[in-house]
């Protein structure tokens, strides 16, 4: 999926603080994101029922971009979410901010 952008539909059953982690590769590989990746971005927007927003243009509840090292294999964000349905868009960007790929592995835990 080179240059592809993907989303995860997530339901938070209870409000609270969540730890959201995403990776480019499975944990078992212990592999960094690679030298083409310079940034990681997580955008969370409210879900719109059956209408999926392919460009994720709905107003985000959370949007953050951070620098990431080439040997780093996971990004983790702490987020306060009300109960509800959301679209999570975890992306990896090059050093200039251009999309390289979306995350293939997402983990969410309530703290």
Characterization of this structure:
The protein is an all-beta fold and 111 residues long. Helix content is 0%, strand content 49%. It has no helices and eight strands. The chain has strands at residues 8-12, 16-23, 39-46, 62-67, 75-81, 84-93, 99-102, 105-110. Strands 1, 3, 4, 6 and 7 form a five-stranded antiparallel β-sheet that branches. A three-stranded antiparallel β-sheet has the order 5-2-8, with no helix packed on it. The mean pLDDT is 88.
SSE-based structural type: mainly beta
Please provide the count of β strands: 8
Number of helices: 0
Q: Which band does the percent of strand residues land in?
A: over 45%
Low-confidence stretches are: none
Ends: how far apart? 32 Å
Q: What string, H for helix and E for strand, traces the elements in order?
A: EEEEEEEE
What general outline do the C-alpha atoms trace? globular
Integer-rounded radius of gyration: 14 Å
* Proportion of helical residues: under 10%
Calculate the mean pLDDT score and round it.
88
Tell me about the largest β-sheet.
5 strands, antiparallel
Q: What would a concise description of this structure say?
A:
Helices cover 0% and strands 49% of the residues.
Break the fold down into its secondary structure elements and pairings.
Layout (H helix, E strand, L loop, with lengths): L7 E5 L3 E8 L15 E8 L15 E6 L7 E7 L2 E10 L5 E4 L2 E6 L1
Antiparallel strand pairs: 1-6, 2-5, 2-8, 3-4, 3-6, 6-7
């Amino acid at each position: 999926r080179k240059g592809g952008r993907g989303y995860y539909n997530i339901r938070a059953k209870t409000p609270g603080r969540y730890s959201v982690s995403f990776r480019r590769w499975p944990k078992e590989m212990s592999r960094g994101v690679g030298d083409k990746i310079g940034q990681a971005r997580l955008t969370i927007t409210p879900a719109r029922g059956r209408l999926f927003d392919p460009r994720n243009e709905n107003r985000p509840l959370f949007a953050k971009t951070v620098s990431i090292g080439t040997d780093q294999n996971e990004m983790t964000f702490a987020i306060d979410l009300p109960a509800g349905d959301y679209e999570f868009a975890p992306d990896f960007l090059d050093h200039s901010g251009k999309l390289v790929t979306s995350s293939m592995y997402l983990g969410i835990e309530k703290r």
